[in-house]
Amino acid sequence: MGEVKVPVEKAEKGLTWRTMLAFLFVVFIIQPAMIYNWLVSGLWGLPLTSWAVILLWVGLTRMLGNPLNSKEIFLIRITESLGLMYTGYYFAYLLRQQYFANSEIARMFHLQEKVPPFFSPIGESALRSMMNRTFFDSAWALPILVQVILPVVLTAFANYTLGLLAFRLYVEEEKLEFPFASWDAQTMNAFGQRDRDKIRMIVLAIIAGIIYSAATGGLTQVMGIPLVPRYPIDLTHIVETMAPGASFVFTTDMIPYIIGFILPIKFTAAQLIANLALYTFGSAYVTMNDMWPDESKWQPGQGYLWLYQRSRLYFWNSLIVGWAIAVAVIPLLVRYKTVLKAFSRVRTGLSSGESAREKLFTSKYLLIIYLCTAALAIILSKLLVPGFPLWILLIFTLGISFVMTLLQTHSAGITLGFDLNQTYLREAMIYFSGYRGLDIWFIPPGMVLFLGGSGIAQQLKMASILKVDLKEYTKTYFLLVVLGLLGSFLFVSLFWKLNPIPGYAYPYTISAWPVEAMNFWRWQEWLWKGFLFREQWMLTGFSISTVLYLISDFVLHVPSIPVAMITGMLMVPPDALAQFLGSVGSAMIGRFAGKEFWDKNKGFFFIGITLGSGMVDTILRMIALLSRATWLMPY
User: Fold this and answer.
1) What's the pLDDT score for residue 11?
2) Which of 399, 376, 413, 493 is nearest to 166 (CA)?
3) pLDDT tens sequence across 167-207
4) How many helices (H) and strands (E) does the chain have?
5) For residue 503, what are the β-bridge partners?
6) Cα gap 347→425, rounded to integer Å
7) Residue 110: other Cβ atoms inside 10 A
8) Which of 88, 111, 125, 157 makes a 20 to 30 Å CA pair with 560?
9) Mean of the pLDDT values across residues 33-47?
10) Residue 27 class from Cβ within 10 Å (0-12 exposed, 13-18 middle, 19+ buried)?
11) Other beta carbons within 10 Å of 449
């Protein structure tokens, strides 16, 4: 008898012609709306992008009798962070830089001649560029190369390798929860597996989000008055009568409370404690001891937002930087065996399903790629700015990029995470170098710091839940980077051809760019006043964070507490309070509805509410964009 062959089930693919069509839809339909939205209103992104495409594609493919699978949904989902938010605005930023370099303030203070040719066309070249309104001009060759092509290539490779290493440490070794990424993946899986019970829960939550956003934003836009409040209630004017400089605020927006549903109480409590310590008690201490600089004195009635922004700028940023360095480095030293174990395991590949011959994904090659990318970035930076110290580039481009990627990934593993760009790391590099030349300010941040690896690690967490092949993810990653950049070039060129930028057709460019230009040039002088980076405050933050980490690790056995605290320090006060109350409310709902049921569905409720709210917010924003566009018509 012949050998019986057992049929092997064909593995599902994610990168298919259907996902490719979705990518093109995003690039050619959604991306121009996002760019136009930024040029008109200055708002970055849209409330709902990739999920809108997912829901549309799920409906269309289901009607055709062949619904999307979970892997296809995942690859469409990551278009938002890879193809649009990452590279979608680059060419619009080039036009803003051209305005900065040729603005009235640059000419007034004789700064224009200090602008290097790799930043923007200058003088007659700029006039010719603005007259012809095209990037196909020899004056744009060097700026496009240095400000767009090189940063995109360098950050794409560096963030990819750092993200893979962070994934190995915090997902596979530390096994952190990653609340947002996990629930996002489970939602994709529910649609991909067509789980009726889960989809029913998600749809109900989406409907609730639609109703809520329509009642808050929709009625407000139609009626002209906020019928259902959705804004912060600032009680600072009451609190400061008892403690000058203190602030207290809560929000009536439901979304930050819903976010708390998926976060553990111990971490939202740590966020709130850190937030109150800085912006309530800390700001009061600063005010009562008359520590505010003369250029920015506290006055009663300025509100929580002024206190939050100014105290961050003059005091807490220094403390946060010191805290971040400690909480990023100390765990690597204390738990060095875990780190070595995690990275050594990468030698066998990133998942058990991959063959050992895939050497590109081993730790050895990942580190080689990262070191080569960072070395190339350092060499290019030295060629462009020869006088900038090499040692500071080595510390920041090689070291700080690595440890801060791990810190951000750790934060995303226990909370929603944070963006370290808020801490002015590039400015810290310039300040501590002591280099006073202006040319270093024109080097794009993506050539000296790589801080996007955390997002890659979170996507890999989702991919691991959905069993997406790493090679397929890698192909999609680089494909979307290229498509996003191509879309940026096409549509910024189109909008520029239609009307001058800056110009009346794009209100944000004529109302906000002059202010941004003034701030751009002012920063280069203000940095050296020393308010942003106070060594004593940084040392205080480093010391407190080190002690708290050692206590939380060896006594409380919860080493992530200081990481949650730095997340709280970077949050606006109403969100920190709302997330804590939301996590407390989630625990109470679990007792009432049943802990097992709630633990299995609370994330779907969170995702659904935010999806429904985002749908309405997107529609309202599109209506606003259309209304602004119609006044340009000649009739």
Assistant:
1) 66
2) 413
3) 988 998 888 999 999 999 999 999 988 888 899 999 999 99
4) 32, 2
5) 506
6) 32
7) 8
8) 157
9) 82
10) buried
11) 22
The number of beta carbons lying within 10 Å of the beta carbon of residue 127 is 12
Q: What is the DSSP letter of 441?
A: G
Residue 579 has a CB neighbour count (10 Å cut-off) of: 29
- Which ranges in 296-424 belong to alpha helices (H)? 303-311, 317-334, 336-345, 363-384, 390-393, 401-414
Whether the full predicted model's pTM is greater than 0.85, yes or no, is yes
How long a stretch of residues is the chain? 635
3-state secondary structure of 122: coil
**What is the phi/psi pair of residue 51, to 5°?**
-65, -30
Task: Compute the distance between CA of residue 105 and CA of residue 101 in angstroms, rounded to an integer.
Answer: 9
What the block records as the tokens of 574 is 């109403």
Q: Helix, strand, coil shares of the chain as percentages rounded to 5?
A: 75, 0, 25
Cα 143 to Cα 89, 115, 151, 558, 602: the distances in Å are 15, 11, 11, 48, 48
542/534 Cα distance (integer angstroms): 12
Q: Which residues contact 425 (CB under 8 A, 6 or more apart)?
A: 321, 396, 400, 404, 449, 451
Using only C-alpha atoms, the chain has a radius of gyration, in whole angstroms, of 25
Our CA dihedral for 516, 518, 519, 522, rounded to 10 degrees, sits at 160
Print burial letters for 281-312: b (CB count within 10 Å at least 16), e (below 16).
ebbbbbbeeeebeeeeebeeebebbebbebbb
Output the pLDDT for position 494. Answer: 94
Other CB atoms within 10 Å distance of the CB of residue 253: 18
- Per the structure block, which two tokens stand in for 8? 């092997």
Average pLDDT value for the chain: 87
Please return the burial class of 628, using the count of CB atoms within 10 Å of its CB with bins 0-12, 13-18 and 19+.
Answer: middle
In this model, does residue 78 exceed pLDDT 80? yes
- Per-residue pLDDT of 531-562, as tens digits, reads 889 999 999 999 999 999 999 999 999 999 99
